[in-house]
DNA repair protein RecN (Dyella humi), 557 residues
Amino acid sequence: MLTSLYVRHLAVVEEADLAFGPGLTVVSGETGAGKSLLVDALMLLAGSRADSSIVRAGSDRAELAAEFDLVGLPEARDWLQLEELDEDGACQLRRVIRAEGSSRAWINGRPATIGQMGELAALLVEIHGQHEHQALLERAHQMNLLDAYAENETRVAQVRELAQQWRELGVRIRKLSGGEDREHRLELLRHELSELEKWALPAAELAELESSHKRLANASKLTEGITGVVDLLDGDSEFALRSSLGRAHAELNRLAALDDRLAPLLELLDNAQIQLTEAADGLAHYAQDVDLDPDRYAEVDAHLTRLHELSRKHRLHVAELDDKRIALQNELTELENAGDALQRLDTQRAQLQRDYDKAAEALSKSRQAAAKRLGKEVSALMGELGMAGGVLQVTLEASENSDPDPQGRERCELLVSANPGQPPRPLRKVASGGELARISLAIEVATLGKDTIGCMVFDEVDTGIGGAVAEVVGQKLRALGSRCQVLCVTHLPQVAAQGHAHLRVSKHSERGSTQTRIEVLNIEGRRDELARMLGGVEITRETRAHAKKMLEQAQTA
C-alpha cells in the first residue's frame, strides 16, 4: 500500500508531501489544474521515461519519493531481498530528474537502475491511464486478462516451460541428425580436436611451459648474473661478503672473551656464516645447471607460438584452450554416437509432449470455465454501466499450430454486442470510444483484485460517462477499495463522493509564477468541492445542499 508521496519541482507543483491510507482516495480539481501530476509522479517512480521538460521552470531538478507498506506483499519483500535492497521491511522509491536531462534513482537509499525501479513498482502499484483501455483491443492482452481472472499464473508458467524445453530438444535433435552438415561438422571437429590435443595444455602444465620459456630465453643473463652474485658472496676478493664476515667473526670472538654478554651476538654471526655458505653453494649449483640448450628453447617457443595461433583462431585466451578441447571432445563423442543420443532425445521429447498435452489441457479447461464466468460478470456490469442489454463473450479459438506452443492450445477473442439484438462481433471492430471505456472499466472491475498488487491507480477512466452510470462507477471503485488501495483521478462528483479520502488540486498564480497546490479535504472541504463539481462557476444554496446529500448517501451506503 502507498503510504506517502513527496513531489518537488515537478511541472507546476512547487512542493507536495501527501499521506495516503487504505480504501478509495479520489483526486479532483479544475481542468488544467494538474490532477494527473500525481499519476505522472507515480509513473516516473515506476521507471517510465523522464523528459527534462517536466522539471519546474527555474529549477535545476525535480525530486520524487514514495513509501510503501509491504504488509501483504511477499513478492515485493522477496524481490528486495534477492536484489539486496531490503532495509528492515521498508520500501522507499526515490528519483531525481535534472533539467539537463539526466536522471538518478534510489531504492531504500541505495542507488538503483530504472529497470530495477520498474520491476519493483510492478509488484507495488498498477496504473490505469486515460487511454489504457486501447490495450484491450489486442488479443494478447485479452488472453492475459483472462488468465489473470482465472488465476492461471502457475498453469501458464508450466505450459510455457514445457514448450520451451520441447523446442530446445528439437534444436538438439536437428543438430545431431543434420545430414551433410553433420558430416562436415564431424570432419571439422576431428581436425580442430587433433590440433588441440597436440598443443593445448592444462593450467599447471601451461604455467610450467611459460616458466620454462622465460627461463630458457634468459639463460645467458641468468648464468652471468648468478656468477656475479657468487663472486660477491664467496669470491677471491678481500671484499667478498664471506671473507668480511669471517674477519668480523674473528674480531667478535676475541671481544667475547672479554665480555660474556657478546656471546649471543657471536652466535648470530655463526648462523649468518652458515646461511651465507649455503646460499653461495646453492647459487653455484644453479649456475652450473642453467639450461643453455637452444634446441629446447626453440621447441618451447614453437609450442607457445602455436598456442597463440590457436588462441586467435578460436577467439579464446590461451588458458581456455584446454577447456575448448574437452568441449569439442564431448561434442564429437555425442555426434559419433548420434544414434543412441537421438533415441534418448526422441524418448525425452515424446515424454515432454505428453507432459505438455496434459498441462495444456488443464490450462484450456481453466480458461474455458473462466471465460464463461467472466463473460457473464462483465455483461452484468455493462448493464449497470449504462449499456443495458449489452453482452460480452470471451471466446477461445484453437491455435493453428499443432506443436507445443508457449501460449497454450488456444487464442482469446473478446466479442461484444453493445445493443440488444445485435450479434456479437470482435471488440476491436465494433466498440466506440465511449463504449470501449465502459467495457474496459467493467472488465477491470471484474478482473482486478485477483493479484497481490497493493495499490491501483485510475487516471480519469470515467471519462465519457455521467449521471446514474457515474454513480455506479463510483460504487464499483469504492467496492474495489475494500479489497485494495485505490487512487482515482476524476471529474465526476458521483465518483468523488464515493471516496474514503479526497484530495483537491488547484492552480494559483503568485508574482508571475503559476503553482499547483494539493490539499487533503475535510468533510466541509469535500462538500464545497462536490458543489463546485456539480455547479460549475456559480454555486448556489441548492447546489451545496445537493452536494451534502450526495456525500452523506455515498459515505453511509
Remarks:
- The chain has 19 helices and 15 strands.
- The chain has a mean pLDDT of 86.
- The first helix runs from residue 37 to 45.
- The radius of gyration is 40 Å.
